[in-house]
Amino acid sequence: MSPVRVRFAPSPTGFFHIGSARTALFNWLYARHTGGTFILRIEDTDKERNSDEFLRVIYDSLAWLGMNWDEGPRVGANGGGDFGPYRQSERAHIYREYLEKLRAAGRTYEKDGATWFKLLGERHTVFDEHRKKEVEKVKTAPMVIDDAIRGRVERVEDEDFVIFRSDGNPVFHFVNVVDDIAMKITHVIRGEDHLSNTSKHVALFEAFGVKPPVFAHIPLILKQNGPGKMSKRDQGALIEEYQRRGYLPEAVVNFITLLGWNPGGDREKMPIEEIVRLFDLPAVNQSNARFDDKKMAHMNMLYLLALPPAEFTAKARAYFEARKVATGGADDAYFEAVMALAQPKIKGIEELPAYTAYFWGEDYPTDEKAKAKALAKGEPKARLAELIEALRSPAADFASDTALEALIKSLAEARGLGFGDYQGVARIAVTGLSAGPSLTSILRLLGRERVLARLERFVATL
RNA sequence: GUCCCUAUCGUCUAGUCUGGUCUAGGACACUACCCUUUCACGGUAAGAACCGGGGUUCGAAUCCCCGUGGGGACGCCA
């Protein structure tokens, strides 16, 4: 069998969304699994709707997700190849050439200034309910689609269709097939929304005398709420959104791979090498999958938890810089120490600024509801006074969590109380929050001076 | 309206090809409890599904047919 050649063929007419990303991913996975070639082809024949910004988003998103292309537009380390150019806007001469082949074979005609592809068979006219007009139908044999996911699908293509617009530009169906022939594509992996177009494509392949590639129509991703497939406007649809929010690309890749494919059994979190090894077309599901942002967030948390602390810190640093989150001139060691406390606790990088706000300066928000709750029980004023006194003593060792813990515990024991009687009120006083890392770790990082100042300032407001 | 695809917990799915091992497994979410220094994490438990009807068969989640539901396509968009 000839080596696998697959392509991802986006059109830069909108932001890169999750469905496109998964189509790209399945192509990339199949190429890597089979040792084949992954080709990026830009379908920019619709000049009105294309933009360079969208093109850049495609390149960025693919790179971010780790999908390198072997052939295609040259960007960074990716691209090049012998079947270029890889942007359809630069392939006009090739389309002309292929059009001549069809013309010579008598398979085209002109109508209303456009060039049409002529189906073979008897013709008759019927009234079309959907389009509310008379249309010419052609009696043809069903087109056979050999689909690696759905098996054999038959569909009758019974109307001629435009292949060159009256403005002289070729349309999608034509360029798609011509390029797949010219680029020697062996497997066409794309969304199921193209399944009904495929009969047109098979008709074109046959007209060119070329055996069609193997098709693989993957199920669609449905929107989380409401009917229909996911579109660019839906919450969670845009890849660059995940990038911006500090999601880990490995987690995004792992999650969207599982939307429509799985290796069988219970495995979910898998390194990409493992996914490449196990991925295959027949295992792809045939039914659509609904997007679930909670499960996506959970997968991200799993990856976050497994990240080496130094990498977590680097990601956090990059996120803080991109978002211009001030850290009060914190040095690397302090930043790293704070992140070490936060990493096992949070679900996403985006939670970090709010979760760690009180570490960077004295200007942090207080959760008033939590404050009221913490003050409602016991004798908070007395507990704070005792704590201040104890922490002021030179005997309080702010370098050690266990020493601080022992100190508070002995304070509690002497009064027949528990650690919790100090923990809650001290936490709200020092962090403004009711939840966070271990209190003693917070005290240690903040240091005696800042802790005492905050406690005293807090007591003064009571 | 026509054509095509599809159907297991609320959601993602395992199991379907090769019928019996399925009183249908896992994960997310939800609930309770445990762990605990709050919050997470983790652990335990609970609830939760084979769309309906026919057929084939000793036996159907699994094979076939018909409904129904869901999705897609029907552009001089891609």
Would you kindly provide a written description of the structure presented here, covering whatever features stand out?
The protein has helices at 18-34, 52-65, 92-104, 172-182, 198-207, 239-244, 249-257, 272-278, 293-306, 309-322, 332-342, 352-356, 368-376, 380-392, 401-414, 420-431, 439-446, 448-460, and strands spanning 5-8, 37-40, 72-75, 78-80, 108-111, 114-117, 122-128, 133-139, 143-147, 151-155, 161-164, 187-191, 214-218, 221-222, 289-290. By secondary structure, it is of the alpha/beta class. The strands form seven sheets. Strands 5-6-11 form a three-stranded antiparallel β-sheet. A two-stranded parallel sheet has the order 1-2. It has a two-stranded antiparallel sheet with strand order 3-4. A hairpin with a 4-residue loop joins strand 7 and strand 8. Helix 14 (380-392) crosses helix 16 (420-431). The longest helix has 17 residues, at 18-34. It binds one RNA strand of 78 nucleotides through strand 6, strand 10, strand 11, helix 4 and strand 15.
